[in-house]
Amino acid sequence: MDYSQNTKANLPHLNQVYSSIWDNHPIVGQIGGWVCDKDTGALKYKLHKTDWTKKSDGSASVLTGEDGDVMVKVPAYYLKITMEAYGQPRYEIDDTIPDRYATNGRPGFFVHPAFLTKSGKVKPYILVAAYKGYILNNQLRSVSGVKPSVSQTISSFTDRARQGRNTGANKHDITRFYERLACNLLMYIEFGDLDMQNAIGQGWTTMSESNTTGTTNSLGDRSGYVENNNGKASIRWRGIEDYWGNVWEFVNGFMISDAGYHFTNDVTKFLNMGAMETYAKDLSAKVPNGYITDMEKIPGKEWMMIPKSTGGSASTYWCDHFWSHDPTEQNIALAGGSWASGALCGPACWNCDNVASVATSDLGARLSCSEEDAA
To answer: In the sheet that 110-111 helps form, which strands lie side by side, from edge to edge?
Structure first.
């Protein structure tokens, strides 16, 4: 099967015929919605692939929190990166599902680091919240039919993501840097395009306030948007709603200083810049804010798409906007864009000029959950 075939996901009408060759891919085709235990992250029941108001068996689902959090299961995958003669990386994913210790990969392929525990074991999957986060009984939840919670700091959202949880193998947090990069890469490979607002939809990006979660439930595990009103409707990528637009998402595991970029996938080191791995680069002079033209090529971590330069547009190069580090500050990262960001939004849209104390009405968070090594 030729998995390089492009698909376009826009769904302005529910009765439009939808077909994607990637629905049959062993990795991408398995991305989809589940209702999970709100405290342990255990999978409870699969949602119907074309209509989340139903379970996979056709009976009615409950997406409002009573049955648990609505999450999207993203399977682990093998990745290969080849540097082309013109200096840009070529990304490939394999059809092989990684085993527990990544012993079944083809030569040149490795498991994306988002799916590795500290000891090197493969996480079979990660759970990404279907919706922007909502604080319910002091826990950050993923539920349908609510306005996303905002006006909290990154530390506050992190605490509420972990509240009453993380006593077992699965650990809850807010969106992790490595996880977002892993999803971005799958999206780019699936559509063969860097302009995701063209491929999937503009998103809830030309509005004056946030949107209610769950407006795309009728799409199930599909990608696109429901209303024939591009730019004024939430988008969905394989079940993940508002991957860009609606409210910004705080991202854990990525910080920026004059000394360079700092990153980790270790939950015990989040928001502790000194404990993170560092890609040393002199950032004492600000990179001009603008549309991204190139990404850093970090040796051995070419999968880590950190914006390097700007000067493009909404339809050229990476097609998304970058707000760069403010010199002398220790900055955190926001991803995706908000309800009024328009063409600036997208999977590669990063805002890296805020400090950890920021809390405004357009900043929210998304719950995530994955397996970790025992303490």
So the answer is: 89-93, 78-83, 110-111
Burial 95-104 (b: 16+ CB within 10 A, else e): eeebeeebee
DSSP 8-state class, residue 306 = -
Question: What are the angstrom distances between the C-alpha of 336 and each of 13, 275, 312, 364?
Answer: 25, 26, 17, 11
List C-alpha distances in Å: 255 to 62, 122, 247, 339. 37, 25, 20, 24
Q: Using an 8 Å Cβ cutoff, are 264 and 277 in contact?
A: yes
What are the beta bridge partners of residue 172? 369
DSSP per-residue codes, 177-218: HHHHHHHHHHHHHHHT-S-HHHHT---S-SSSSPPPTTTTGG
- Structural element, H or E, at residue 257: strand 248-257
The tokens describing 221, both together, are 């595990």
User: What is the token pair recorded at 336?
Assistant: 């995706």
Pick from 251, 228, 270: nearest CA to 11: 228
> What 8-state DSSP symbol labels residue 155?
H
pLDDT tens for the 375 residues of the chain, in order: 444 444 555 444 445 556 678 888 999 999 999 999 999 999 999 999 989 999 999 999 999 999 999 999 999 999 999 988 888 899 999 999 999 999 999 999 999 999 999 999 999 999 999 999 999 999 999 999 999 999 999 999 999 999 999 888 899 999 999 999 999 999 999 888 899 998 888 999 999 999 999 999 998 998 888 877 888 999 999 999 999 999 999 999 999 999 999 999 999 999 999 999 999 999 999 999 999 999 999 999 999 999 999 999 999 999 999 999 999 999 999 999 999 999 999 999 999 999 999 999 999 999 999 999 876
Contact present, 252 and 177 (Cβ < 8 Å): yes
Q: How far is CA 4 from CA 32, 75, 182, in A?
A: 21, 19, 18
Extended strands (E) in 84-132:
89-93, 110-111, 125-129
Kindly report the backbone phi and psi dihedral angles of residue 344, in degrees, each rounded to the nearest multiple of 5, phi listed first. -70, -20
